[in-house]
Design a protein that fits this description.
mainly beta; Endonuclease - Pi-scei, Chain A, domain 1; globular; about 200 residues; 1 helix
């Protein structure tokens, strides 16, 4: 089959999935019962299943699973955005173009240059609620795993599919506890398109 037209060729060949550095800070919900509101921030490295986080819409979402990818190389290409967000170059973020007054999902490396930085692990989040698609990290709206968004850079046949992502993660060690550890080379790629089509856990 043909690759999705909105997925750029350059995104096919990243060495691991879309993630954040452990020092990046996710915004927590200060409310209860879905009322949202700001409740401070927490480093990604400290986030666990059950933590209540803030969505870009100002509502509350619950973390179902933290996915940690350990980097044997000890370094990773990262883009710095906002107030300290360190994110992999192809993890879609919501960009507000003030001149055009538009918002669109773009790759971080279209906003700033990526550079190789010391990094022992990178992190991704899966939310409990299916209708929640993104979280705020260092003030930037970032997609979560299985987000279901079909627009712009967020469109992806695997990472946007909750069914496929959960299908893989739910078979992995750590899923029940909500903390899955992967290693470099965890991404399974479609031989025809080069796009990630699955995740695997070594060991």
């Amino acid at each position: 089959g043909r690759a999705h037209p909105s997925v750029r060729m350059s995104s096919y060949y990243t060495s691991h999935g879309p993630c954040f550095s452990g020092e990046s800070r996710v915004h927590l919900s200060g409310g209860s019962g879905g009322s949202g509101g700001s409740g401070g921030t927490k480093r990604l490295v400290d986030v666990r299943r059950g933590d209540r986080v803030l969505t870009p819409q100002g509502t509350e979402a619950t973390v179902r699973c933290v996915v940690q990818t350990k980097l044997a190389s000890g370094e990773c290409d990262l883009v710095r955005l906002g107030s300290g967000l360190r994110i992999t170059p192809y993890h879609p973020v919501l960009h507000h173009d003030e001149k055009r007054n538009t918002k669109e999902w773009v790759f971080p490396n279209t906003l700033a240059k990526a550079s190789l930085e010391p990094c022992s692990a990178i992190y991704s989040l899966l939310l409990e609620q299916e209708h929640h698609q993104a979280v705020l990290i260092n003030g930037v709206a970032c997609v979560t795993l299985g987000h279901g968004i079909a627009e712009g850079a967020a469109a992806h046949p695997y990472f946007a599919s909750r069914e496929l992502v959960v299908g893989d993660l739910s078979r992995m060690k750590g899923w029940r506890q909500g903390f899955v550890v992967l290693s470099e080379g965890c991404c399974v790629r479609d031989e025809e398109t080069g796009l990630v089509c699955g995740l695997r856990q070594s060991g």
